[in-house]
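Milestone M4 deliverable, item 7.
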Amino acid sequence: MRPALLGIDAGTSSVKVVAIDLEGHRIADCSVAYPTKTDGAGAEQDANLWWEALRTALAAVVSDLDVLAVAVTSQAPTFVAVDAAGRPTGPALTWLDRRAAHEASEIAAIVPDSRNGADPFFGTAKLLWLAEHRADSLDRAEAVLSTNGFLVRRLSGASVLDETTASLMQGFDEEAGDFPAALRAAVPALSLLPALVRPGDVVGEVTSAVSAETGLPVGTPVIAGGIDAIGSALEAGVLAPGDPLVDMTGFSSVTMLAVPRGAAVAGFIHSRHCVPEVDLLITAQVTAGATIDWVNGLDSAHDLRSADRILARPRPGRVTMVPSLAGERTPTWNASARGVLAGIDLTTDGTDLMLAAMEGNALALARDVDAMRSAGFTIDRLISTGGGASSDAWLQIKADVLGIPVFRPTSGHGAAQGAAMLAGIATGRISSFESLRGTSASIEAEFQPDPRTHEAYAAARVRFEELVAVS
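Output delivered:
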């Protein structure tokens, strides 16, 4: 059987499993979807479905492989309360759930200087909301686990909280590795969070019961992992300050820049990396990929994502879209923001709308890139990963809007492949983070900006920003 390292990424829409060889090259992969229940500001998932999807994906990947180690990354911060047997005591509150806005403000009054701001996205407020609205769930809970933590628990029996997830929690003191005493007193549910570990820590082994369910070998080392951003950064070779900006697009669109530990930019998301002494500066548009899927679903007879059809249209397009279909994150943190379409007439068709959706995401990203540059960071190229990277049209639009080259790596599978790399590093099967650079350096496609189109997009940003202001 072929030796392999396994990466699992439980995203917002699906779980993905990627197997790589000991040089970091992909061998096999499988993705299985699960639903999100939305109701107003609420966005919940059944954590049991994460496990069912993972079992299905593992069955498709591991049968002919000798799995040497497995690591888990995931959507974040998403939390689920579990009982002593690891069973959910209620639905998981996803990162998309925005019902804890009042609680986030209460926490800000206790810890006003948190590097990550007062928003329900940052997981601490979710615990306070659960205590008020789902007290029975917490009363029956032995622990509150992140998404990757839940799957680690199912695989190995170990309950852990990785430091990348912890760093996305409002009020968490990254230097102390804990929450301030005043915050612990105000949010008793923080006591249900498990012990803090590093993303690369081996925290347990695959149990015999799980082996029988999944085909994973008994005793396979299980690595804690972390937020999906660290997996995408690893896969793209973003390991140190000065490395390129990486773009990961699935349901949402997230970019990651490696920065010195402790760096901060107002309005951005900040997380530990899995690489020592390196942090990630993160931007996020909530519904970038989801907007593309929504537009594509408007015409069941055609795939509106066709690059030939999109790039044949004059650009910028004649329709302008603000693609904030479920609130917005960086840099405005406007929970009530909604999508805007301007310039529609009786001749507007589906391709016009798809072009507008792709342009809207790229124009929103341009604002974040400007803020990074104003903070002193050099952004001279973009590496694009995840499902959105498969679109030649979208990557060309990003290159033209940003005015920098955009690269699609040969691997391009995003967080799950990076998780597999982390499994190799954690167990010594891959020698070092730096040794991954060669694997990550292979480029499948390059998209160069057109200077005239870039100038036209610069002018189009004025109209776009006017619409953002009223969205």
